[in-house]
Amino acid sequence: MSAPIISATGITKSFGDVHALTGVDLEVQAGTVYGLLGPNGAGKTTMVRVLTTLLKPDAGKATVAGYDVVTQAAQLRTTIGLAGQYAAVDEILTGRENLEMVGRLYHLSPGESRDRAEEILERFDLTHAAGRTVKTYSGGMRRRLDLAASLVGRPQVLFLDEPTTGLDPRSRLGLWEFIERLVEGGTTLLLTTQYLEEADRLADRIAVIDKGAVIAEGTSDELKGTIGGDVLELEIADPANLQLAIGAVEGMCCGEATVDELRNIVRVPVETAVGTITDAVRRLDTAGVKLVDIAIHRPTLDDVFLSLTGESVEDALPADDELVTANSRKRSRR
Amino acid sequence: MTTTAQRARVSVVDRLRWEIRDALVITKRNLLKYIRVPTLLVFSTVQPVMFVLLFAFVFGGAIPLQGGLDYVDFLMPGIFIQTSLFGSTNTGVGLAEDMNKGLVDRFRSLPMSRSAVLAGRTVSDSARNLFVVTLMTIVGYIIGFNFQNGLLNAAFAIGLVLAFGYAFTWISATIGLAIKDVESVQAASFIWIFPLTFASSAFVPVESMTSWLQVFSRNNPITHAVNGARYLVLGEPWGAMSDVWITLVWTVALLAIFIPLAVSNYRKAV
User: What is the DSSP letter of B207?
Assistant: First the structure.
């Protein structure tokens, strides 16, 4: 394995009494998509801000594309692109002007900035709206423009902080497709998200982060593997037949069945293959057990998070600082 | 040794060039706002023009002036300074807005100069001040105001007004970046700039104030700025050349203090 393009060791950052990061280690290989998954206030944004030189860590060392985030911040900034939680585009400017401005600030010439803006507008399906002020854009279009702006400087490493938070499901799907397309070009991407589905779909490797520390790391499958494989769920019509049902399916694979007597549900671990459900139905039919429902349940990252932290991602309470910042920002937005 | 020195010199020149270019990009972006949102320009200029008319016609008759000088002549240099200072509070508000919209984060993550966002903002706000002062001069002329000390001194007067206002844009930037909340920044700017401006020679002669206020007013930098502008517009005895110099010293001193403070606040802006 080659040297990681992002590497962080022991990064800590506190804001007064709030310990946003308590020793984060991270390694991201070039050309991969890395997901930082965690609830609000877990420290994801703080970590991104440290890696993009917006915030100095209290302790620890981090490099991006070989540059130290503290001592070589200026060089580092020439190699990265950042799209934050808010669509950081100027409402007064048109889409094209926004991208040209960013191009100029990456120190491209006026001509280069114009060409680059045109090229990116096309790539992000924004050419038709390029001459309109951003004020007239929908939420999804703004995010797309924001994403586009982060690519103007042809970054080696792209940071996306909760790129789809606040978007409706359709815009989210659209944005995922754009993100997938842009990493096809070999850009390294570090993205933060509180959506398991998003990390699952986009990221090659995932770090689960909670209360300022990484609590698990691996591929999506590895993380799911830590809490076991697939489970066959049977809802039985007649509670009297529960034992019968267990007897019928327990031999299918590799573990003991468990019973949820309240809901008449039997769960048994299985190795999913073609015919697993048919096999189960046949066994139960032979045993004379009538079914209400049958399904194979695959562990989700939500299950992973639940088993790691004891709370679901959505339930985890945001830390005070991020909540306050988010609210005050919202309040002062017009 | 020589090569290192040469390289260092080139990189300083390069840095300066980029600094200016970056600042110009930001200035252009800020000024576009006035073109795109014409109502902003209209309403932000209506207020100072209204001030000219209100002060001239409401207070004009009540304030007797030495040598029978027309109040409007006395008023205009004062109201130039007042407008320029009030206008400078836009700097902090604009920066707070950019910060809340995440634009400052974007700018700070770009390989651009650290001070360009601030320089661009302060320059574009001063450009706006120039526009408003020009407009007020026209309105002033319509109601009887005259530059009585020559065209060159008139130009110096406008220059002094803008330079002094420019120093205040950096104070406003420092406040805006520290407070961050748009409405609070607006309020925070006016609680000090309002009393400071009114307790100066801008609208009434200092001699007409209560004695304790006179002491404050005479030492108020805004009084020096107004008197300096008044000297350049009207000549003696409405101020002295020394007021012009004192104002320039204040301008340089304020810039020397607040540019580093504002840049440091910008670097740390969360």
Answer: G
- Does domain A6-225 match CATH 3.40.50.300? yes
Q: Which residue among A54, A85, A104 sits closest to B108, beta carbon to beta carbon?
A: A54
CATH 3.40.50.300 positions along chain A are 6-225
Helix (H, G, I), strand (E, B) or coil at A191: strand
Q: A231-297: what fold?
A: Alpha-Beta Plaits (3.30.70)
Interface of A with B in 200-259 (CB under 8 A): none
DSSP three-state, residue A289: coil
Q: Please, where in chain A does CATH 3.30.70 lie?
A: 231-297
In chain B, the number of structural domains is 1
The set of residues, in sequence order, having a beta carbon less than 8 Å from that of A257 and lying 6+ positions away, is: A246, A249, A250, A266, A267, A268
A84: nearest CA partner in chain B: B102
Q: What is the mean pLDDT of each run of 10 residues along chain B (270 residues)?
A: 47 85 94 87 86 87 80 92 93 92 89 90 94 92 88 93 96 92 87 91 89 91 94 86 94 96 86
Residue A49 CA to residue A52 CA, distance in Å, equals 5
A99 touches chain B (CB under 8 A): no
Kindly provide the ipTM of the predicted complex, given to two decimals. Answer: 0.84
Q: Helix, strand or coil for residue B198?
A: helix
Polymer length in residues for chain A: 334
Q: Which two tokens stand for residue A300?
A: 């989700």
